[in-house]
Design a protein that fits this description.
40% helix, 5-stranded mixed beta sheet, 2 domains, 6-stranded parallel beta sheet, single chain, 10 helices, alpha/beta, 273 residues
């Protein structure tokens, strides 16, 4: 493990630049991961960690195949968002176009159209991981997936999911070609979410907080739906509404799996009698 004793060190300057400059992250194809939990999840994924910087030497012992550096606490505090962070990684981005898509066992895809806020994206990724959904498509994004705020808000869930970024028309073509039913979340819809059957192979399309899903997605949707609300507000935060929808999808699929198990159980019990 190498010692970095100066804040003017080349690698420290690199970390600062990657943390603050989106254009530089895109140019170098690298980004920053901060915090032990997030770094561990990144390490256990198929992302490549290039450098590890620690202010606590014992934390670096668990990680192999990375260049390791030790810095004093005051330098670490200069390059991290959270004062409690004792480890930071410089990570190489990975290719995430639809051409690399691998089908998942739950046959569900969440599509985010033009998401704007890194914190919302991160919170949505966290909900996906918590509720057991692994595939997220991001269409024509207005922000960067590897923004530090996205990674922090996801609490490292970003590294546990299959996330693909592509153009809207390519995503629509892909979903139709692969026989996904398309359900659009649309506040103007007259159909409530509980009237939609999410048990088939399907994709749910989410728009931004300021705009509905696009006319192209509405046109290609098998059905659109809304979350019923009884209060005075007429909309929900994007990450909140997505969490509600994901829970409904999970709940429907959990119920049908239980019903299938119960029928098999009864059938077996009758045969044994």
């Amino acid at each position: 493990m190498k010692l970095i004793s100066s804040a003017n060190n080349k690698l420290i300057k690199e970390v600062k630049k990657l943390s603050k400059n989106s254009s530089y992250r895109k140019k170098t194809n690298r980004f920053i991961v901060e915090g032990l939990r997030e770094v561990k999840l990144c390490f256990d994924s198929d992302y490549k960690i290039d450098h590890l910087i620690c202010s606590n030497k014992t934390l670096c012992d668990d990680f192999s195949n990375a260049n390791k550096y030790f810095v004093q606490e005051e330098i670490m505090n200069m390059i991290t968002y959270r004062e409690s962070s004792e480890i930071l990684a410089i990570v190489t981005k990975k290719e995430n176009s639809l051409e690399n898509y691998i089908s998942n066992k739950n046959n569900f895809v969440l599509v985010l159209e033009k998401p704007e806020k890194p914190g919302n994206i991160g919170a949505i990724l966290r909900s996906c991981d918590a509720l057991g959904f692994s595939d997220v498509f991001i269409s024509d994004t207005k922000t960067e997936l590897y923004n530090p705020n996205t990674i922090r808000a996801s609490v490292g869930a970003l590294f546990r999911l299959n996330i693909y970024e592509d153009k809207k028309d390519r995503i629509i073509k892909f979903l139709k070609k692969n026989n996904f039913k398309i359900f659009g979340s649309l506040i103007e819809s007259t159909k409530n979410i509980n009237k939609i059957n999410f048990n088939s192979k399907c994709a749910v399309i989410m728009g931004t907080e300021s705009d509905s899903i696009s006319s192209e997605f509405i046109k290609e949707s098998n059905e659109c739906f809304k979350i019923p609300m009884t209060g005075n507000v007429d909309s929900l935060n994007l990450s909140v509404s997505t969490g509600i929808i994901l829970y409904e999808v999970m709940n429907q699929r959990k119920s049908i799996n239980f019903n299938r198990w119960w029928k098999l159980f009864l059938k077996k019990a009758l045969i044994e009698e």
